[in-house]
Amino acid sequence: xxRVILPHHLRNLAQLGPEIAVNVESPVxxxxxxxxxxxxxxxxxxxxxxxxxxxxxxxxxxFACGEDISLDSPDAELPETISNGSEPFLVVGAIAGG
Length: 98
Hints:
Ubiquitin-like (UB roll), single chain, globular
C-alpha cells in the first residue's frame, strides 16, 4: 500500500481524510499511483492530471522523500520507502500570485 497525501481542495472534493492508501503494482511510479487514485476515487479523475494527455495539472507538484519530482518522468520508479508505505507520496497545491 502506498500512502498518499492530497491537497485540501482535492480531499474536500472526494470527502477524504488527510491521508489515503492505495494499492499500486510494482514498479511503483507516479503514473501508477495516480492511476490507482483515479480508479479508487473516480471523482478525482482529471483533477490531478489531464484526461487526454495524462500530464500533471498546472499548480500541482509531486514530492517523494522530501524531493520535488514533478518534472521527472511519471514512469520512473519511485524509492522503496514510497512503495513500502514508510514515506508518503505528496500531491501539493502550488501557490501563484502576482
